[in-house]
Amino acid sequence: MMLQEHTPLLSTSSTPSSRSSNSSDAESESPAPSLRYNFQDFKFKLTAASAPISSTQSYKSLAVLSGHVGSVSCLALCGEFILSASQGRDIIVWQQPDLRQFTKFGQGDGAVKALATAGNRVFTAHQDSRIRAWKVSRSSENVFKLIDTLPTTKDYLGKFMKQSNYVQTRRHHKVLWIEHADSISCLAVSAGLIYSGSWDKTIKVWRTSDFKCLESIKAHDDAINSIATSGGTVVYSGSADGRIKAWARGGGGKGHSCKKVLEGHKDVSFNAVVVTEEDGGGFVYGGGSDGRLMGWSCEGWRGVCDVRAHETAVLCVCLMGERMMCSGSADKSVGVWRREVGGGVSRHMVIRGHQGPVKCLQASPLRAGGGGGFMLYSGSLDKSLRVWWVPAAASDHHHHLNGDSDNKLRFIS
């Protein structure tokens, strides 16, 4: 199998979270490859991609990448690398397209809760409620170099003397408004800004140029689980309070204001949010603790889908290209969906193979053998990162879903 078209290391564009030395020195210092992956497992013929996929066909993951000591909590694409982080405090860098373990970084900084990348910068959120910024450079012996921790020392020194800069987080406990009072659960980078969402119910806005905290938004009534950005002017946050909120950025340096509140089902938490950018507005989708995917148009806020996607909670959602979307679940499966013109979704396939809940997903346009499709990376509480090739399918095999459906599914395992 031949994998082609990997991107350069230092991309000039941002990689969304929901989408998120010299070579000779690197080769000599790189860790050994993962112990468990074998491209011989890839038995699916791309020429048969348009045929219905049944549970009897031989289709396995391209690779099972092992090395984390804890559950895989988040993934991000960074040029030619795929980054995977875990509750075990380590961030592993895998080289595309050969899936070789390239290096590790970030050890000792606490369990990693979220990853985001923008150009040659990587941002990591940790259980200690702080964000770390890393510079990626092939010209340095230390390819991933820590450049600052947010809030920065300069930010602290400029605010800690004034009592008006403190907010009360619980009884007899105050922190500076630039600090998160609980774990940071999600990150997004857009238009020169970093957005961090936390279990403390707030969103904080940071400037990428100097890492200064610009704003703290009291966003929700419960923990914030996911953040997605659209066009640099609107930010969407999904929360355990059962709402997705759209925050519009004001002009002239003004802060963000709530533009719309999208209600989910009663007593259901939104665990994942993604937003598409399309001519005419785009769509926002949320994955809930009841296993459903809900979608709305970003213009007019019309509901476009409400689908029973999984048996149990949807934990993560990612987009691929203009028309594909994937969802990972506590039921250990990955759902692959095709998005229709009006925002509805049709089930493309279901992928099984993990031994634990699927916590994070990332998709990459790397191509295999010239066939249509994409690479999909899934991280799980079973401590593994699996790599899948998702083939394209003929349109007549899609099942359009904008409500409940009991259609029999096509499975990959």
TrEMBL record:
Feature: compositional bias, Low complexity: 8-33
The source's superkingdom equals Eukaryota
Supply the Gene3D superfamilies for this chain: YVTN repeat-like/Quinoprotein amine dehydrogenase
InterPro entries cross-referenced by the UniProt entry: JINGUBANG-like (IPR045182), WD40/YVTN_repeat-like_dom_sf (IPR015943), WD40_repeat_dom_sf (IPR036322), WD40_rpt (IPR001680)
UniProt keyword list: WD repeat
Q: Which CDD domains match?
A: WD40
* Span list, region Disordered: 1-33
Q: Which SUPFAM superfamilies match?
A: WD40 repeat-like
Segments annotated as WD repeats? 177-216, 217-247, 351-388
SMART domains given in the database record? WD40 (SM00320)
What is the official name of this protein in its record?
A: Uncharacterized protein
Native species of this protein? Salvia splendens
Organism lineage: Eukaryota, Viridiplantae, Streptophyta, Embryophyta, Tracheophyta
